[in-house]
Amino acid sequence: MQITETVSEGLRREYQVVVAAADLDSRLSSKIDEVKPKMNLKGFRPGKVPTSYLKKTFGKSMMGEIVEALVNEGSQKAVSDNNLKVAFPPRVEPLGDIQAAVDGKADLEFKVVIDLMPDFELADVSALEVEKLVADIEEADVDEAIKRISEQSRSYSARGEGEEAQTNDAVVINFVGSIDGEEFEGGKAEDFNLVLGSGSLIPGFEDQLVGAKAGESRDVKVTFPAEYGAEKLAGKDAVFAVTVKEVKKPDEVVIDDAFAKTIGFETLAELKDRVREQLKRDYAQASRLHLKRRILDALDTKHDFSLPPTMVEGEFNGIWRQVEAELKREGKTAEDEGKSEEELKKEYHDIAERRVRLGLVLARIGEQNGLTIAPDEIQRAIASRARQFPGQEQAVFEYYARNPQAQAEIRAPIFEDKVVDFIAELAKVSEKKVDRATLFMDPDEALEKLKGEAKA
Where is the PPIase FKBP-type domain positioned along the sequence (predicted)? Predict the structure, then answer.
């Protein structure tokens, strides 16, 4: 077996592997000699089948196995002989006529493509300076949260005969939907409870029932959103034949100790304390999300090194498939985003590079500091995922038990969070007070807002 390096550029290495036809034939003869004593074929005494007959009858299939083994051996040898630290399993590409090699008529030639792990120095994470957004929980926030709870548990009473439905009223309706006169699947319901103004149904549906009376029938005309989940309905005009059976007005809710008792608390003060504790958890989670983003931004700024091409392309391809699916679902093109396809691809390729770079940095930090994920952490995450599928929990557990790749996808974010928390303990973290709205913004939007405020 002859292995020759043909490409050495950055983190990419390529090797040409050649196995002479004579060597292939020699390996085939050795394999035949190995199995010959065990062969028991009709018409021949045990172990006495002629070599020529075995070669003619089984040679091609045996040679196929030999070639497969040589391909694996060649790729592993290219790695071990050159002491390479690979970032990705080597990729093998055939050269020459592989079938001719299997037939014993030509040398076996193939190319081994290898991406190397980059060698880089980690930045001192204790020197990172990052900002953590925090917000005070105001009494008004607690009151607003309790108001939302009261609205969710609100009762309704029938309006008087002939009274019209108003926004925030509850109506009980029957409806049948059709497109171009044809009823469609999922467009029919009876005794459907709907709060007008809740946004529960397609935009425009609820507005057209304001003013309706019990016993009245109306045709509600709507257009399904372009991004609607059911592709057959997305963007289509539809008519719903609606019959209003009942119109009910919301009962007045007095938020006091009596109300608190209806939802399981002794006093309103106890309810407020519980709500305040939940808000603290919500605020802390939002604050951590911003801190994580700032830490990742800081790490990205501090590290600049070559990336394994295959890793980047794999990450980009995954992102781009999602982008294309989203554009298709919304009936849009790259131009609708104000960019050419090439510009959009460049933007997402940069995102792929950032993800790969940060993945390598976080992995190195975790490795150097002995951060690991215990099996019970994986199981808790899988259990949490299973709870999202009531009645199918066992199937979810079995799916992850059978799929190591799925387990890896569960493990990755847990490990990332563990490393980020480790860095947060060491980095110089300063707190910045913001309002509640900013705290619960997307981290990118919050950053742009704060930059704008700083310039002003």
Answer: 168-250
Instruction: Please check whether residue 126 lies inside any domain of the structure.
Output: no
Distance CA 115, CA 353 (A): 15
Q: Residue 70 and residue 101: Cα distance in Å, rounded?
A: 12
Residue type at 252 in one-letter notation: E
Claim to verify: residue 397 and residue 295 sit in the same structural domain? yes
Instruction: Specify whether 310 is located in the same domain as 406.
Output: yes
Dihedral sign, Cα of residue 313, residue 319, residue 323, residue 324: positive
* Confidence category of residue 339, pLDDT binned at 50, 70, 90: confident
Q: What are phi and psi of 305, to 5 degrees?
A: -150, 165
Q: Do 320 and 186 share a domain, yes or no?
A: no
Q: Quote the tokens at residue 34.
A: 């190995």
Burial 205-232 (b: 16+ CB within 10 A, else e): bbebbeebebeeebebebebeeebeeee
What's the length of the chain?
Answer: 456
Q: Note whether 361 and 303 are within 8 A (CB).
A: yes
In the three-class reduction of DSSP (H, G, I as helix; E, B as strand; rest coil), residue 179 is classed as strand
Which range marks the domain in which residue 274 is found?
266-455
**Chain mean position to CA 361:** 20
pTM of this prediction? 0.72
Boundary (domain end) residue, out of 252, 284, 316: 252
Q: Answer with the one of 196, 224, 252 that is the final residue of a domain.
A: 252
* Cα–Cα distance for residue pair 51/185, rounded to 1 Å: 68
pLDDT band at 43, cuts 50/70/90? low
* Token pair listed for 337: 């985003």
Strands lying side by side in the sheet with 108-115: 2-9, 12-19, 108-115, 91-95
Supply the angle between the helices 404-426 and 341-368 in degrees, to the nearest 10. 70
Tell whether 17 is covered by a domain: yes
Number of domains in the chain: 3
Nearest in space to 222 (alpha carbons), one of 167, 165, 178: 178
Q: pLDDT digits over 259-270, tens only?
A: 999 889 999 999
Q: How confident is the model over 223-241, as a mean pLDDT?
A: 84
Q: Which of 61, 78, 70 is nearest to 6 (CA)?
A: 78
Residue 288 is predicted with a pLDDT of 96
